[in-house]
């Protein structure tokens, strides 16, 4: 059986001197100096061959993908924005999520492309998407979801604070979560493709007293959110830390727990001390960090949009600079080098090796799949 931890006992702990607090009103743009992403693990020869098969499939010029997740009657070719999303790391994430079954990885990627089209987040330019800042801004007024800081592996942190809920249950709440996921991804430094979720269930009576909201979301909403996270953002979650879990929160977690896949369960840490995972200089003082952060929508929201729009524009500009093709590495797309460091079909550890023999092997393997 599983456990969500016991309620913490109150205890006295040394608090940082208030004179050392860092006043912050906007997102941190970079990790603390010296914190870098861990080195990537080398693929086995078998894994690399499977990666090449999936890459070769999505490089097909005649490829068309459905415009709706659960309907295949209408299909359209990939646009540049979708090719920019279909990176080397993206393919590897889906392969890991499907236990390196090529056919399943391809189906999952196509399903996500269709879902992104239907959900309205298929474009690199945020203003073109139907799930946009204007739509979800009412959900952001109290700071219930905030991108702030990076963890000790240089993952950008997304804080979820259910106690600051300011709206009734609706589909727009799901759209807001997806919007924030896309924003936190924009903060990822070169070499890091996962994020950290820091979930604080602390109650905020000053907010809940002024609006009629649900204390916990309906099970149907919880399952929809899980479906989106596990199906369309596979391997994006590096760590999920949960703290201040109330009785109703524990009850909801027990209801939703059976629907959480084993890979995600391994990344959940209950009743976590955030200071063990995030450097004090980028951790909120509420969790024994040095950051004095009070959510001010008029300051935070415009800064978040400006920072992420610049980052996404730079990403897309580098995508075109390096050929505007499927399979470019996020290391290059989020990096600063003037030259391509990870060629198509290669990895950081073998970027300088010849690809001629590999291309022939992949072509033969793909033909055998009859895809």
Walkthrough of the structure:
Its main location: other. This is SEC14 homolog 3. It is a single chain. The protein has 371 residues and is an alpha/beta fold. The protein folds into 2 domains: 45-126 and 308-345, Phosphatidylinositol Transfer Protein Sec14p (3-Layer(aba) Sandwich), CATH 3.40.525; 131-295, 3-Layer(aba) Sandwich (Phosphatidylinositol Transfer Protein Sec14p). Helix content is 39%, strand content 12%. It is built from 13 helices and 9 strands. It has helices spanning 45-58, 80-85, 88-97, 102-119, 133-136, 171-186, 205-208, 219-232, 247-256, 262-265, 297-321, 330-333, 356-369, and strands at residues 22-24, 64-68, 71-77, 145-150, 156-160, 195-200, 237-243, 268-270, 291-293. The chain has a 5-stranded mixed beta sheet, covered by helices on one side. Strands 1-9 form a two-stranded parallel sheet. A hairpin with a 2-residue loop joins strand 2 (64-68) and strand 3 (71-77). Helix 1 (45-58) crosses helix 3 (88-97), helix 1 (45-58) crosses helix 4 (102-119) and helix 3 crosses helix 4 (102-119). It is globular, with a radius of gyration of 21 Å.
Write the layout of secondary structure elements.
Elements: E1 22-24, H1 45-58, E2 64-68, E3 71-77, H2 80-85, H3 88-97, H4 102-119, H5 133-136, E4 145-150, E5 156-160, H6 171-186, E6 195-200, H7 205-208, H8 219-232, E7 237-243, H9 247-256, H10 262-265, E8 268-270, E9 291-293, H11 297-321, H12 330-333, H13 356-369
Parallel strand pairs: 1-9, 5-6, 6-7, 7-8
Antiparallel strand pairs: 2-3, 4-5
